[in-house]
Amino acid sequence: MKADLHMHSTASDGVYAPDALMALAAGQGFTHVALTDHDSMAGIPAAREAAKRLGMQLIPGVELSCGGQKEIHILGYGCDPEDTALRTFCERRVAQREERAEAMVQRLCALGKPIDMRRVRELARGAIARPHIARALLEAGHVTSVSDAFDRFLKPGKPAYVPKEDVKVAEAVRLIAQAGGVAVLAHPMELKLGETQLQSLIGEWKAQGLAGVEAFHPSAQNNHAAFLMRMARREGLLVTGGSDFHGEAVRKTEIGEGLDRWTTMEDDVQALMASIRSAGQTR
User: Fold this and answer.
1) 231 and 202 in contact (C-beta within 8 Å)?
2) How far apart are CA 94 and CA 91, in angstroms?
3) Burial zone of 207 (CB within 10 Å; 0-12 exposed, 13-18 middle, 19+ buried)
4) Which of 243, 186, 217 is nearest to 28 (CA)?
5) Which residue, among 57, 44, 79, has the nearest Cα to 2 in the 3D structure?
6) pLDDT the model gives residue 12
7) What DSSP character marks residue 235?
8) pLDDT tens string 135-175
């Protein structure tokens, strides 16, 4: 088995269309993949058809954005893309992304770094996210790279950053469960919390229905992955892993990056799939 359970397509802020992303993964020998676009499952039908044609197992997914100033991302695996409540939530979040992007573009113009909102929409080809604004800044010559755009303007606390509406983790977990899915905390180390605080929060979210932790991710170094693995096993949580692949124009990671240390991959993926089956039966 060769798996990557965290990837993005043009349905959110990725570079590759869903079918092209599946072809790229299949060409690299992946057997099990998940498409986890931000607040969108619009790419799942095309990805599912391509994965089937290529002989890969696709786990339908979504990455819901929670929190306000501190962003918290919850991965939902096995959700029904046609679930009404989840679709309504995602549509609302996409509309809010548009409003937020317009506000950030206005701030950039006021800072003397003008970009065209029409170009941001062209780059997005769907749901708008900060990487699209970053790419527009790069095209306009205001920054030297996408990372530079985030570091100077688009990260929390930077002059063009606009926070999202605060969505509670409990709401995201509930929506995922109602859609027949399994909720997993994405890239915990990106929360920049100490181990004690992180353990406390994960315990709180577990009580609200959180089922797993993404222990393997490019942001989790060797000691972090080991800590997350131990905590997940101790708490009876699922373990997942993903590269968070967007495409080089957005983030310089490769499919499968950060997963070479995931020695329990096959057992963990099988456990996730069993949990998805169980969630679907009890829906």
Assistant:
1) yes
2) 5
3) exposed
4) 243
5) 57
6) 87
7) H
8) 999 999 999 999 999 999 998 889 999 988 888 999 999 99
35 or 220, which is more confident: 35
What's the pLDDT score for residue 61? 97
d(CA 136, CA 124): 10
Find, among 177, 188, 170, the residue nearest to 241 by Cα: 188
- Cα separation of 227 and 229, whole Å? 5
Instruction: Band the pLDDT of 124: cuts 50, 70, 90.
Output: confident
Q: How far apart are CA 73 and CA 64, in angstroms?
A: 6
Tokens for 20? 């092209």
**Mean pLDDT, residues 106-126 taken together:** 91
Angle 81-84-85 (CA atoms, 0-180°, nearest 5)? 105
Largest Cα separation within the chain, whole Å, is 55
Token digits for 34?
């998940």
How far the first Cα of the chain sits from its last, in Å, is 29
Paired strand residues for 216 = 241
pLDDT of residue 21: 98
Residue range 171-202, pLDDT digits in tens: 999 999 999 999 999 999 999 898 999 999 99
**How are beta strands 182-185 and 212-216 bridged, if at all?**
parallel
Nearest Cα neighbor of 56 from 24, 22, 79 is 22
In the prediction, which pLDDT does 221 show? 82
Helix, coil or strand: residue 49: helix
Positive or negative torsion for Cα 265, 267, 270, 276: negative
Read off the tokens for 66: 């929670």
Beta strands in 72-187 (DSSP E): 72-77, 182-185
Of the candidates 145, 139, 221, 164, the residue with the CA atom closest to the CA atom of residue 187: 221
User: Residue 123, SS3?
Assistant: helix
